[in-house]
Amino acid sequence: MNNIGNNDKKIKVQNIFDSISKRYDLLNHLLSAGIDIYWRKKALKLTKLNNNSVLLDVACGTGDFSIEARKSGTKKIFGADLSINMLQHFTEKTDWSKGNIVQCVAENLPYKNSIFTNIIVAFGVRNFYDILEGFSSFNRVLAENGKVTILEFRLPKSKFIRKFYLFYFNKILPLIGRMISKDEQAYTYLPESVGEFDQNIDLEKLLLEANFTSVEKHSLTFGLVQVVIGKK
């Protein structure tokens, strides 16, 4: 992707999430019927965090994934996100996040080499402007045997579930999202980005290209969501 395209997507994504930040948590839980909480817990269980983990939450948003990790016993948690408004809400929800979160893009993480044991990303990879560059950045800041755990939407393989899923994503979700967030663009971008991502992006292939040595994949909730774990 050229630099103009990179910058355009960066600005678009930043503007969208800055705009909906105040109602982001409400909409996440409402539009997923609360299942997003289970998805995060399951992803963290699969990645096997422990008390010694040093965790970076990329595209951390308002911090729900980090907060769940903290509940599970991980204490050393850092966050990174492009949207300053989302980060502001993160700091309002927690005391321990202050000083531990930074505004940046995944492709250019402002950290030293090999300092994290784990990276987590929930529903953020499709917003990267260069996914391979982002994964290479992950590899650089992860220690040996470190893991990146990606939680992301996907299109279900079942024709029946896919039909219902696409109807909900393309008709119901944008309507509710616009009514609550008052943002015309944000909840049109979401279904569009999920469909494009699922058709064009092979997470396993990109992680291996970014020099991760092994990749495991898990499917959740009838194939609506995937957890992809890459090990350095």
Can you describe what's shown?
The protein contains nine helices and seven strands. It has 232 residues and is an alpha/beta fold. The two termini are 26 Å apart. The chain has one domain (3-231): 3-Layer(aba) Sandwich (Rossmann fold), CATH 3.40.50.150. The protein has helices at 3-20, 24-31, 35-47, 64-71, 84-93, 131-141, 159-181, 186-200, 203-209, and strands spanning 54-58, 76-81, 101-103, 116-122, 142-153, 214-220, 225-231. A seven-stranded mixed sheet has the order 3-2-1-4-5-7-6, sandwiched between helices. The chain is globular. A hairpin with a 4-residue loop joins strand 6 and strand 7. Helix 3 crosses helix 4 and helix 7 packs antiparallel against helix 8 (186-200).
Summed up:
The protein is of the alpha/beta class. The protein is built from 9 helices and 7 strands. The chain has one domain: Rossmann fold (3-Layer(aba) Sandwich), CATH 3.40.50.
Give the total of beta strands.
7
Looking at the structure, the CATH topology is Rossmann fold
Average pLDDT rating: 89
Return the CATH architecture.
3-Layer(aba) Sandwich
Label the structural class: alpha/beta
Q: Helical stretch count?
A: 9
Strand order in the largest sheet:
3-2-1-4-5-7-6
Instruction: Name the overall outline.
Output: globular
Tell me what portion of residues adopts beta-strand conformation: 15-25%
CATH class: Alpha Beta
Q: Give the N-to-C terminal Cα separation.
A: 26 Å
Main pleated-sheet profile: 7 strands, mixed
Which runs of at least 5 residues are low in confidence (pLDDT < 50)? Answer: none
- Write down the secondary-structure element order: HHHEHEHEEHEHHHEE
**The CATH superfamily title:** Vaccinia Virus protein VP39
Which percent range fits the helix content?
40-55%
Backbone CA Rg: 17 Å
How many domains make up the coordinates? 1
